[in-house]
Specification:
- This protein is of the alpha+beta class and 448 residues long.
- The chain has four domains: 2-175, Ribonuclease H-like superfamily/Ribonuclease H (Nucleotidyltransferase, domain 5, 2-Layer Sandwich), CATH 3.30.420; 179-264, GIY-YIG endonuclease; 271-365, no CATH class; 372-447, no CATH class.
- Helix content is 38%, strand content 21%.
- The chain is built from 15 helices and 16 strands.
- It has helices at residues 48-54, 58-62, 67-78, 88-101, 113-120, 129-136, 146-172, 208-217, 222-230, 242-256, 303-317, 334-337, 351-365, 407-412, 421-433, and strands at residues 2-9, 19-27, 32-39, 82-85, 110-112, 188-193, 199-205, 233-238, 271-277, 283-289, 298-300, 372-377, 384-390, 393-400, 414-416, 438-441.
- The longest helix is centred in the middle third of the chain and has 27 residues, at 146-172.
- It is elongated.
């Protein structure tokens, strides 16, 4: 059974916009056996441009049912059916998100008539619904209204079934594996186990279910096919926070050493920026290999990247090329001769003066504050995920619903994890990519 569905909405984002209309044609592969269509009150204004496109006004939907009032009808009508749409992801994601607001997980195997038309009806000038139907002689009444577009998509489906029914049936049969049917669409870490229960792969995703579905449908590489053939069970841990998921994934890969995480079992950040104070009291920076033991100021994927970064620090803070290991000489560095170095290499500048700028360079390369908490959304609306940094080092993470208890409440929820170059780099990169992340700076006395 096929449920051919089209929706009209208040805009293009299924996260922030809402449905204004839905139409469903139930098709048994030979004919239409049932149909349903209704306007929906989106409970928010319809933008003028959307009204111009669809003809649906705020006045038209004012007395229409809200989504929760038709949700049961949609579930019952599409039970056991394959979701069909022209650009199916758009309609499917909107409907799924409407159900998600109600706390219901709506999942269906899908068929996209755009993708199938490209495959079974090649060489068309356009695969947009309007132009494709015009070329195929399918009449569309009430274009950009749910019922008109859904009926046209139904007629298109009938042509596709005539062209190659087995191809359609094959896609229809691409259902969700039983192993992941109960996996949530949440942010977290997932584990793939073999028949002995051993972890063979660990991954992180903002949508665990969708990522696992990709694994089960991936035939692109020999490795992907081999891994899939060995999966006997799946487990997962929801984190809510993407940062916590990244940190947990890194820790778990190092702990379990899964066979299909070969490249992630060791750090991809092979080079680091290090510092030490020499016999004359100068704070010196240098590039070295990331080895167990000495903690780098920051890490890099290649030595070339690291050296380029250090060159930038030398220029920005007027540091000495010689003291940073970028210019080998018995005397003054090249920059001293062109007045871009203040003479630390010759003793002309005191260690105290030079070190202030070197320390500023280190602060720029590390965390902007040595002691702070990162607070993100947790695993539920009431919960917060918390990551702790103390003395510039990663301490661990935890979850709490007691965010009003002050600093002590944040301390108490933290579970300790290893600090290493990977975790440091994960946190730095995440904060750079997400500048609006909530940071709670703390005086170091409060970290005792």
């Amino acid at each position: 059974m096929y449920a051919v569905i089209d929706v009209e909405t208040t805009g293009g984002s299924f996260v922030s916009e809402r449905l204004t209309e839905i139409a469903i044609y139930l098709h048994d592969g030979s004919r239409i056996v049932d149909e349903f269509s209704t306007l929906i009150n989106p409970e928010q204004p319809i933008p003028y441009m959307i009204t111009r496109l669809t003809g649906i006004t705020n006045e038209m939907v004012a007395g229409a049912p809200r989504f929760f009032e038709v949700a049961r009808k949609i579930v019952e009508m599409t039970e056991g059916a394959t979701f069909v749409g022209h650009n199916a992801a758009f309609d499917y994601n909107f409907i799924r998100h409407e159900f998600k607001r109600l706390g219901y997980n709506y999942r269906k195997p899908t068929i996209c008539t755009v993708k199938m038309s490209r495959k079974l009806l090649p060489g068309k000038q356009s695969y947009s619904l309007g132009k494709l139907c015009q070329e195929l002689g399918i009449r569309i009444e009430n274009r950009h209204r749910a019922a008109g577009d859904a009926l046209a998509t139904t007629r298109l489906l009938e042509l596709l079934l005539q062209a190659d029914r087995p191809a359609i049936e094959k896609q229809k049969g691409d259902t969700v594996p039983d192993l992941i049917k109960d996996v949530p669409e949440e942010t977290g870490v997932y584990y793939l186990h073999d028949e002995r229960g051993k972890v063979i792969y660990i991954g992180k995703s903002k949508n665990i279910y969708e990522r696992l579905l990709q694994h089960f449908r991936n035939n692109d590489t020999v490795k992907a096919v081999e891994m899939r053939s060995r999966i006997a069970s799946v487990s997962y841990e929801v984190t809510g926070s993407e940062l916590v998921a990244l940190l947990l994934e890194s820790s778990e890969i190092k702990k379990h050493k899964p066979v299909f995480n070969r490249t992630q079992r060791r750090s991809v950040f092979s080079s680091g920026l290090f510092s030490y104070t020499d016999d004359q009291g100068y704070l010196r920076l240098y590039i070295g290999k990331n080895l167990n033991g000495h903690q780098p100021v920051t890490s890099f994927t290649t030595q070339e990247h690291a050296r380029n970064y250090l060159h930038g620090l030398v220029s920005k803070f007027e540091l000495c090329q010689k003291l940073c290991g970028l210019y080998e000489t018995e005397g003054a560095c090249f920059h001293f001769g062109i007045r871009q170095c203040r003479g630390a290499c010759t003793g002309k500048e005191s260690p105290e003066s030079y070190n202030r700028r070197a320390e500023a360079a280190i602060r720029l390369s590390g965390f902007s504050h040595p002691d702070f908490f990162i607070v993100e959304k947790g695993r539920s609306k009431e919960e917060a995920a918390v990551v702790k940094i103390a003395g510039g080092r990663y301490i661990g993470f935890g979850f709490t619903e007691n965010t009003g208890a002050g600093i002590d409440g944040l301390h108490d929820c933290i579970s300790h994890y290893d600090d290493n170059r990977d975790t440091q780099q994960i946190i730095r990169i995440y904060l750079k990519k997400n500048p609006r992340t909530k940071i709670l700076r703390v005086n170091n006395q409060e970290f005792s």
